[in-house]
Specification:
single chain, about 350 residues, Glutamine Phosphoribosylpyrophosphate, subunit 1, domain 1, 2 domains, eight-stranded mixed β-sheet, four-stranded antiparallel β-sheet, binds aspartic acid
């Protein structure tokens, strides 16, 4: 009898434990599912540009267009893979820009435009939205990938912006890849310089501001930039360029200027600019978009529209931006005929475009 009672009690305890453990595991499952829905991984994303300007379909060959689209796709997939694997937005920005810098199609690294003296002077900057740390270089002539040097300035120097010979000395110290200046040569960019110079000679004696304006307004720019949001909710932005064709006097544009060409802040957004640098500096484009979100509480889309469609043109400038906010919303805003651009979201959905529509 005693044995039977003990047996019944044991069975009772066994079943109640089983039920409890089932309940616990169901609860755990629910919790896990909830956490999965809430995890920021749904929000990661990346946006790139390869410059804005007078990019018209009628001036494109199908081969050239296909080459641009393929390179944009290749580049953005590099960054997307890094983000998908849990890498940082800074790494994604840097590695994505490296692909564009190495391509002669874009005005950054190999394929950079020529200065008046037939040299290439490169500018770049990068910014970490989590720490507001930033690094930039201007006027370097032997650095294969200027964005990598900007990263070194950010990570391993007490400064934000280095220029010219000093920046190159720092590059040597940090063992950054250096190349002979001839590495940057492309026939296409040299031809553009020659054409611009010929025009300049023809108009000798009537070099009014309007003359320069007309020339610059018609130029294809081609700077490259990238913004990203990683799985940890951190934003980053970077920009790299050869600047503007026929530039003189060690002219420096907006690309290495934090707040103008590049800006990232986790609380708001990450922005990379391209366009007529002088106006982007005067309008502090990248920071202005972030500040409008922060102080006015407007969306990224609204802020980007107002700055690119109203504030910059009101000054007389043109160009565009790509941006991503802390929720993964994006903007690809430009007031020129076209802008080379691409976007990939957390689901791997890819969108590559050049002209107004696509
Ligand atoms: N913003 C660059 C500069 O003024 C040019 C460009 O975006 O293509 O140097």
């Amino acid at each position: 009898m005693k044995k039977i009672i003990i047996g019944i009690l044991s069975l009772g305890i066994f079943f109640s434990c089983k039920q409890q453990s089932q309940e616990i595991s169901e609860k755990t499952e629910t919790v896990v599912q909830k956490t999965e829905v809430k995890t920021p991984k749904d929000n990661f994303g990346i946006v790139i540009h390869g410059g804005a300007g007078t990019i018209l379909k009628k001036n494109m060959t199908p081969e050239k267009e296909a080459a641009y689209r393929a390179k944009l796709e290749e580049a953005i997939k590099v960054g997307h893979t890094i983000l998908n694997n849990g890498g940082t937005s800074i790494e994604a920005v840097q590695k994505t820009i490296n692909i564009l810098e190495d391509s002669p199609l874009f005005n950054a690294g190999k394929g950079a435009v020529f200065t008046h003296h037939e040299t290439n002077e490169l500018d770049a900057s990068i910014m970490d939205g989590k720490t507001l740390n930033a690094g930039a270089v201007a006027g370097v002539t032997t650095v294969k990938n200027p964005i990598n040097l900007a990263f070194e300035v950010m990570e391993n120097s007490p400064h934000v912006l280095l220029s010219g010979k000093g920046a190159e000395t720092f590059a040597k110290e940090r063992e950054i890849t250096l190349v002979d200046p001839s590495y940057f040569f492309t026939e296409r960019r040299m031809n553009t310089l020659k054409k611009v110079k010929e025009k300049e000679l023809q108009k000798e004696g009537e070099k009014t501001a309007a003359f320069y304006d007309a020339d610059i307004k018609d130029a294809k720019f081609g700077t490259v930039g990238c913004v990203a949001l990683d799985k940890n909710g951190n934003l980053a932005a970077g920009t790299s360029t050869g600047g503007m064709t026929n530039k003189k006097w060690n002219r420096i544009g907006d690309s290495p200027i934090i707040g103008a060409g590049t800006y990232a802040k986790n609380a708001t957004c990450a922005v990379s600019s391209t366009g007529w640098g002088e106006y982007f500096i005067r309008a502090m484009v990248a920071h202005d978009i972030s500040a409008m979100m922060e102080y006015k509480g407007v969306s990224l889309e609204e802020a980007a529209k107002e700055v690119i469609q109203e504030k910059v043109p009101a000054l007389g400038g043109n160009g565009g931006i790509v941006a991503i906010d802390h929720e993964g919303n994006i903007a690809m805003e430009f007031n020129t005929a076209g802008m080379y651009r691409a976007h990939m979201d957390a689901n791997g959905k890819l969108n590559v475009a050049i002209y107004k529509e696509n």
